[in-house]
Each structure stands twice: as structure tokens, then as C-alpha cells.
Amino acid sequence: xxxxxxxxxVGSELPIILGFLNSxxxxxxxxxxxxxxxxxxxxxxxxxxxxxxxxxxxxxERNEFLELIHERINSQCPEPRxxxxxxxxxxxxxxxxxxxxxxxxxxxxxxxxx
Length: 114
Fold this sequence. Notes:
mainly alpha; globular
């Protein structure tokens, strides 16, 4: 795998990983721990991506999470509904890694402020 710039991912869990990588938690994580270009753009480096705390949901939680991800991917709905779906995805991720409501709210505020 190249060190940066190009990443190729394969596997059966790609929708879950896609949901996680596009979450506010992922944005916050990279803005806090990742390196920047010097112009404020966060670089997605291999060593940082490998440290992501991706938790694979199981059972009914997995099905709900996948439904939200597919709804967002295929969404042709108005922007307010898209944002609502994204908040629900973020809430699933926060719950899966054990964040408190306060921690999740903090991350949401930080991510939206950037």
C-alpha cells in the first residue's frame, strides 16, 4: 500500500468503513492527530488511518447502521434530511465506541466549526 495519496480498499465491510470515514468523529480525529499540508488541509496518511477505532456493529445495530449508510449514499432528499441521516450515523458511531453524549456533542461542534 502506498504511504499516502492513493488508497485501495476491498472487502465486504466497505459500507461500514465508508460511513465511519465520512463521519464527524473521523473528521475530528484527523484534524486532531493528522498532519496538515501547511495550508490547513488534513492529509490522510496511512499511519493515521490504521489507528482509526472502527468498530464493526453486530446484529440489529449493524442492519440499522447499514440502512442509514445506504440511505445517505442513495439520498436524493433535501439537505435537511441528509444532515439528519448524517447525525444518526454519527450517533451510531459514537455509541459503538462508547462516547458519552457530551463527548459526541463536543466533536460535532468542533467538526462543524472547521
